[in-house]
Design brief:
Lysozyme, 3 domains, two-stranded antiparallel sheet, 9 helices, 47% helix, elongated, disordered N terminus
């Protein structure tokens, strides 16, 4: 048998429950975990339990309920555990949600800046792609419509902003189709973007805005995206 520490030789064993025994029983009753001191009870011991590691913490460092139990072992521990508040978790969830939204907004802004930079690059180079990009920008339409618009332009005028059709029915009526998208004067005046109404019919960007708006209103944006109308054989049909 391992001799107990802190006992004077020859002293009688304690007749009642020790302070440590009371602490262990109280801790077990409420499911507490002791820190700083571990008391080990050996089977069959009649003397005081063996203390391992440090001594128990001072009463001043214990909670009020635990100190009360130490002073009065009959004190009940029921109802001494405070409920856990979930407000902190709710606030954390809200904070994470706000961070997620902020990240989405930042990503959209970055994407918009990238698209604007691409349009500016096209404009700087000039030419047909530049005119199409500017027209879609004026109309606040997505730039992914550009391939369809370009297909229509190439079929209508071959990309020549000063092209004039002198052989079709409109020409015979004295209102020839003109410009990149081959609009007649009345159609151009009706459909041109208002901010470009002062431009001539052969102005590349103004002509495209008129042709695009006419196409969307009469045939739908899907037809514009597809590059105009086509017959059963897949051949382009003028609008």
């Amino acid at each position: 048998m391992v001799p107990a520490r802190h006992l004077i030789a020859g002293s009688p064993p304690p007749s009642g429950p020790s302070l440590r025994t009371t602490m262990i029983a109280s801790a077990a009753a409420v499911g507490a975990v002791a820190t700083g001191s571990l008391t080990m009870l050996l089977p069959g011991e009649t003397t005081a339990p063996t203390a391992v590691a440090d001594e128990a913490p001072a009463l001043g460092s214990l909670s009020a309920s635990t100190a009360a139990m130490l002073h009065n072992p009959t004190t009940h521990a029921v109802g001494t555990l405070a409920p856990v508040s979930l407000d902190g978790f709710t606030a954390a969830d809200q904070h994470l949600t706000m961070l997620g939204k902020a990240t989405d907004i930042a990503a959209r802004i970055a994407e918009a800046h990238q698209k604007e930079a691409q349009v500016n690059a096209l404009v700087a180079r000039g030419g047909l792609d530049s005119w199409i990009a500017q027209a879609l920008q004026v109309l606040d339409l997505p730039q992914n419509l550009a391939p369809g618009v370009k297909k229509i332009i190439m079929a209508e005028s071959g990309g020549n902003p000063r092209a004039i059709n002198l052989t079709d029915s409109n020409a015979r009526r004295g209102t020839p189709s003109q410009g990149l998208m081959q609009t007649i004067p009345t159609t151009f005046r009706h459909y041109v973007a208002p901010e470009l109404a002062h431009k001539p019919i052969t102005d590349p960007v103004a002509n495209i805005t008129a042709g695009v708006r006419y196409m969307v209103e009469n045939y739908g944006i899907n037809t514009l995206a597809a590059g105009g109308r086509s017959n059963a054989a897949g051949s382009y049909i003028g609008y």
